[in-house]
User: Fold this.
Amino acid sequence: MFVAFVLIIIMGVLLFRTRSQVASLRRRVDMLEGRGHAAPAQTPEVAARPVVAVQPLPPVPEPMRAVPEVMTAPAPPVWTPPVKPAPEPKPVAVPLRERMNFEELFGRRLPIWAGGATLAVAGVLIVKYSIDAGLLSPLVRVIFGLIFGAALIGGGEVALRQEAKVRDARVRQALAGAGVASLYASVLIAANLYHLIGPVTAFVGLAGVTALAMGLSLRFGAPSALLGLVGGLAAPALVGSTEPNVPLLATYLALAIGGLCTLSRTQRWMWLGVGALIGGFGWGAILLFAGALDAASSISLGLFLVLLGIGLPLLIATGKLQTLIRAAAPLVAAVQIAALVAIGGFGLLQWGLFALISVAIIWLSRRDEKLLRLPVIGVVIALLLLGAWPEPLLRDFAIAALALAIIYAAPAVFSLWRQRGSIVEAGQIAAIALGGYAVTLFHYFLPDGSRDHPLALVALAAAALPAGAAALGWRSETRRGDARFVTLSTATALLLTATAALAFPHWSIALSVGLIAAALLLLGLEAEDRRLEYVGWVFGFFALPLLAGGSNGLDEFVRTAGEPGTIELAPALLRWTALALVAALFAWRSRYRAVRAIAQGLSAVLGYAALAQVVPATALPLVPAAALVGVAVIAWQRTAARLLPALVALFGLVVLWAAWPLTVWAGSAYISLVGEPMLASGLPMIRDAILRLAVPALAIGGALWLARARMPVLAWRIAIGAVLVLGAAAAHILFKQMLAMQTYDDFIRLGLIERTIWEALLVAAGIAVRRWRRPIGLGITAAGVAHFAWYTLILHNPLWWDQAVGGVPVISWLLPAYGLPLLLLWLAGRYEPELAARFQTVRSLAQMVLILMLGASVLRQAFVGTLLTVPGVSEMEDISRSVVAIGMAIGFLLWGIRAKSRLWRVASLVLMIVATLKVFLFDASGLDGLARIGSFVALGFSLIGLGWLYSRQLTKDAPLTTSG
Assistant:
């Protein structure tokens, strides 16, 4: 199978080379024949003599040709038709299918190359057969192999000398290549299998064969070199030794591949050098995973891989892929040596080999600017290898890690701030420091904290590397041009964070990170590098969740909400206060407005949290309210806009404190909209209403008044809305708690009284505020009217809901309950004429409804007492309803006449008609004797009086309106 695989590779490569040679040969033939390059031909006549244009003559049977000029006398002008040059015959392109058909490829070209490869393999197979059959002694087998190889090479030389008879260069190339492969195999068998020659002799023999292959390729061409490549690399595998001599094999491979790479450079055959490198790395992988390697094998294999990755690629011919090859080969070599380190048990010997390839990578990167990033990948491989080290001894780990750190860091620090220095070196230094410490922490950190302080010292030592590199560039003029300085500073900050996390108590981690953030901000200002400030933001925000760290971190958070918690006062106060000051520093010194705003708000919140650690929970809601007023005083003295973020943050804290009582109150209010009484037992206590609603409302109002001059419109409106909502909720809760309406019986007894007083207070507040802010005052007044309309007039009306109205008719709570909205409707026409005129019809209808409801309620109270929902209606009460309705109709008419309002007069007629129908259809049918007569008499006089009024007043010509 392996032989077949080799043959397939040979045939494919030869096919590619054959096509290239055919194309080259075609171009040479075209060049020799001059096709496509000759100038257009001209006839001798045209070239010898110019044509003279004369008057056209009659056509003649045959065109006359110009005669070459041989006499001295000028010839007379002769008419000559224009002669076109003969078209040049175009070269006939032979299609690719015709040039490379089946017979050409498989009949004439490939058999020769396949025959050469077969001869090479046959030599090896003959030797193996003789071994298996025991026909020949080892010495004779080797000698026969050398003779066979020499004979093949001689046959190639004969074919070269008999070129006239052979007429095919591939014959000598195939024979010479097969001979080289046979010589390789014979020398390896003699040294590696039979031990007939020593290592020195084998080295000389292999070097001689390699030199011979190079010479033959120069004499016979590239195919010989290709066959030598395949045969030379495949010979060790074809020999089939179970215990190869790795040092000898590595030396052989180094010589063979080195010769091929040299030949690749001299002949500009890049494919030859690349193929040799690929084969070498393939052998490296085979030797790595074939079995355990002793010290000598490890050293030889490591040196071979270093040579293969660094030295030999320099010998390959230059071309477009030169940089890619010289970059990929060292990385492959580094990966294989890393595998050698792992297979070899991570011994110091293997680490030394990896250090060697690392030094070689550094040298190569400094030799070629295009390979400047190679060391970065080398650092990554080294860190991964260190991380994969299972249970390393501290001494060995320290030696390997420090050695690699010096190898990769020293050149980077040296060139960092020089002309060639770039972000690549800075990233390499940061990766060494951070990655090396991360690997150390991975191996040696213990959860019980017993190694925290030594690891903290390691972190501090690691931080010295990027810090020192950054300090070297402090005076560099190019420091601000790229991210070198900020990269190193960030790495230093991360390592200092790790140092603080391991060296100090856990509760101080947030404090340490916050201080590092402040240091980055100040360093960025001093260095005039804004990117450092960005890093400071990240550290500052990362410090916030770290506040929950430590044994009492969560309890400290709980205390900010007023809940009890077990804390250590000094650490808690120090943590929160320090971070508040760090945020204040960002708010003061940051270059960016958005950052200053966010930091200012955070500073206010963190300052409140610091006070929450010492202020009792009962008084804690007063802290943000007092702070809000204090900041507003400062804003009033200076500029409100600069302190607006702090005002907004404190406002948010105030609202958060008010959230719970406000939510409870709003929930009870929502349920009351559908008829569930709003009892004091379901509302917050008086203390919560004062501390968390009333005082914050006053604080927001005071702050709003102090900072009103420069307050943005949107912020002003939000603050006003908060004052109104919090104030209304606090006032309503206090009002409910003072009346102490705890049960449903209390609601029956005090519901109407409570609503009437509350509505009166709302109306009074609205009238008072109207002088300061008319829209707000009208809104409060409208809220009072809406409260009456929904709760008293519709939902809990005493006529259909159990509500005590008082024991004395007229002088009861019905009069103020209905009188207040009637008074407001009347005052609206006086103090809000424009508004009243716009809604005049609605206003008049509302007055009529209120008067009718008041009359019906007072009449009902006169017969049944304080609860109007008593079932049953007496005859006298029923007749009284008609009488009251007629009286109201007369009153509506009189008011309509006085106010010249047609709406009131129409309402009077409608009410009178309803009352008349009621008397005739219902009242009279249930009466007898004098009662019936009295009712009709009363109705009659009422109708007569109503008609008389209409006849008396409507005859006047005064204009009528709908006002009232």
Remarks:
- The chain is about 75% helix and 0% strand.
